[in-house]
Amino acid sequence: MIAILIIYTLHLLPKPGAKQRTEEPPYQSDLPDVMKDSRGNVFIDYHDVRFSYDNIAKFISEYEDDFRTFTNYQNSSKYLIYNCDKRCGGLGDRLKGIVSVYILSQLSKRKFGIRMSDPKDLQMFLQPNVIDWRITADEIKGKEHLYIDFKELHQQFAIEMENDDIDPANSIARVKPVDIIFVKANQNWFSTYRKLSVSPDRFPIIYKLPTSDITRIIYHGLFKPSDELQNLVDDFFAKKVKDKHLVCLHARMGEKGFERYSFDDIKLALYFLKHYDRLGGHVIMLATDNKQVKDYAKKTYTSLVDTEFSDDFSHVDHLGSGSVDDRTKEHGFMHAVLDHTILSRCSTLVLTNSGFGVTASAIRHTSDNLFTFPSRSKSVIRTRREVVREIFQWRCFSHLETGYVCDG
């Protein structure tokens, strides 16, 4: 019997004298080659693009070009606006919602906008890129509008859209089609969109690429770093990383009462990083919401580096409280966006259970040296961008009448 082995050939460093691979767009190079070993056994070999910080700009330019192939409805008189005024979830949840609402704007043929004021204006950190998603008050003044909270009603949205095969250009989950629709959302609705009869014509790419690749294209089409954020990222790599390999762990422990990992659990992932600490030529960065983990890292790793925002991490959704001053809100939001941006640019990335890390891996340009640490696995697992979301999918329910299972 021919043994079929799935082998992920992801190397930490190129071997001396090894010929470097020609860089290709990740969604091309991620396609596996069927090969045979010396014994004639068939195996599947993934030729991942080697991570290169220097080539990030080239890849982003390609994603921007891909985004430009989408139909542009920005001159439409009807609007679909991602809305976040309070309690929208963490940064990862917000980005999932933005991507979902953008695709819905394509399906509904509406102009896409973003209005995020909580805890601070999103434009302070991420600015419009290929399209201008900013919406002014004068632009929509006097037009009929409504607000929909699909953060709370995401199951209902998906079930109704799928059951009735609703054309979003005529109705969005049985909501009358007024000129301005504000939507709060924090879910990934790719599965629902792929089941609608209008999708092949209006957004065909959703059938051609995995969710992670489409997320990456939309993210880079919508956003570019603010000057301040870009300067912080450049400064971090120039002064802290230099010519070394950046190894990152996102250790999302969870708030009291909602713990995702205990300190004993996370120790295995922390031990995993010791290998890189001893190798030389590597620096280690931790993004975490837990002081005990941070203190442990400071005592354990000789090659630990951090950004200027090395204080305790504050969850973005908790910064919207009226008791938090503006400076703390701005500092906390920048801390989150900076960590997220750097995680997407780490040579080696280890993820725990968090939408923050899932989206960081999605916008990364390769699966090279990507690992996950699921809370129940008790091991650090080499993985691929395309499956990270499913590994950490959270709280999915089956609907008795429809068999519907949420995207998460």
From TrEMBL:
Entry keywords, A to Z: Signal
Signal sequence, start to end: 1-19
Highest taxon of the lineage: Eukaryota
Protein name (Swiss-Prot/TrEMBL): Uncharacterized protein
Originating species: Dreissena polymorpha
